[in-house]
Design goal:
With 141 residues, the chain is mainly α. It has helices at residues 2-6, 14-18, 20-37, 39-43, 53-73, 77-102, 107-125. The model has no long low-confidence stretch (mean pLDDT 85).
Length: 141
């Protein structure tokens, strides 16, 4: 779909942007399927105060796969990207920051936390990627 419909309309570096949705959605789909394949290990990451850990593992896995599909096929992709960004920020606040504070010298906690911040920021930026008109900039004067 991207190659047949979108690439012929784009010129220059905008051709790379056409693949941006795909490059963003593929890791989401991989993370989503990982929630189903390795559910027991991922359930250990769910905070103890949440009940029914396996339910949340499967719910997040299904949400990641649904968001990836939505973003690729452009059906409710703005809503999916916004909800995905919110979900990643919730993960950072409830899972990663407490883990980093408990283990400040463990770089794995930092890497995973920064990865999820990056995915959240990318999800928030995705709907604005192909807006009509010039990019919005802030004037500091």
């Amino acid at each position: 779909m991207i190659i047949k419909k979108e690439l012929p309309r784009e010129h220059g570096l905008d051709r790379i942007v056409a693949f941006g949705r795909l490059f963003f959605a593929v890791p989401l789909a991989v993370f989503g399927t990982e929630h189903f394949v390795d559910a027991k290990d991922i359930a250990g990451i769910v905070p103890d105060w949440l009940p029914v850990h396996m339910f949340f593992v499967y719910l997040v896995g299904a949400g990641l796969i649904a968001a990836a599909l939505s973003i690729v096929v452009k059906i409710q992709s703005r809503l999916a990207a916004t909800l995905l960004g919110i979900m990643f920020l919730i993960f950072v606040a409830l899972i990663h920051i407490p883990g980093i504070l408990a283990n400040p010298h463990d770089r794995i906690f930092w890497a995973v936390g920064l990865r999820d911040i990056s995915f959240g920021g990318g999800a928030f930026a995705l709907p604005d990627l192909k807006r009509a008109g010039p990019p919005r900039t802030a004037c500091l004067l």
